Amino acid sequence: MKILVCVKQVPGSNNVEVDPVTGVLKRNGIQSKINPYDLYSIETALSLVETYGGSVESITMGPSQAGAVIKETVCMGATHGTVLSDRKFAGADVLATAYTLSQGIQKCGTYDLILCGKQTTDGDTAQVGAEVAEYLGIPNVSNVLSVDDVRDGRVFVTAGLDDKNVKLSVAMPCLLSVDSDINTPRLPSYRIKKSLGEDAVRFLSFADFDDQDATHYGLTGSATQVERIFPPEKNDQKHTISGDPAHQAEELFGLLRGKKLI
Question: Is 111 left (phi over 0), alpha (psi -120 to 50) or beta?
Answer without folding.
Answer: beta
